[in-house]
Amino acid sequence: DIQMTQSPSSVSASVGDRVTITCRASLGSVTWLVWYQQRPGKAPKFLMSSASGSQSGVPSRFSASASGTEFILTISSLQPEDFATYYCQQADRLPLTFGGGTEVELK
Amino acid sequence: EVQLVESGGGLVQRGGSLRLSCAASGFSFSSYWMHWVRQTPGKGLEWVANIKQNGDEKHYVESVKGRFIISRDNAQNSLFLQMNSVRAEDTAVYYCARDPGDNGDGWYYFDNWGQGTLVSVSS
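Above: the input entities. Below: the structure tokens describing the complete assembly.
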């Protein structure tokens, strides 16, 4: 199975801060990775894939990219509604696997 | 608007059975692969199973193979998960999720999720 390692596991930030979340796959050939946002008590919500870099309906402050075996989700200017937990997921092969999550909390 | 509504969760004894349902609306259910994903505080998110549009292809995570059965009824726009021989480690919130692939192949991610149903396994 492909193991997904997400970092950091949590980050404390303020409104307006830039936040970067990284995801690495145990298998270097993973090419298809997606990101989800989960607010407390709610289901995860699809944000975007690393291939698209952005997603209709998702604020432009969110962007996704890839560099080698590293996948990155960036929030350029944190807003109050962005305080949540973010998960990556590899979509290359079964079994589909998730990162452990990054909790973005208010500093 | 896509809606996925799970039901059937609850308390079940170890070794027992439970059947989860997911009622889909707002899209052409029979055109999409569907998945079950579960979440526990300790293990985070875990993909459980998926099923092709016509039900003739199914896949499972290793830990549930031989115990869980995913199925669907396209006439009723419903997805199911039959859970047998449940274990303590099956305790989780179970989500029904749609795969965005609608042309035959699954895209292996989830563009819409239900609100989840909690399954608790007691010893």
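Note for the figure: DSSP finds no helices and ten strands in chain A.
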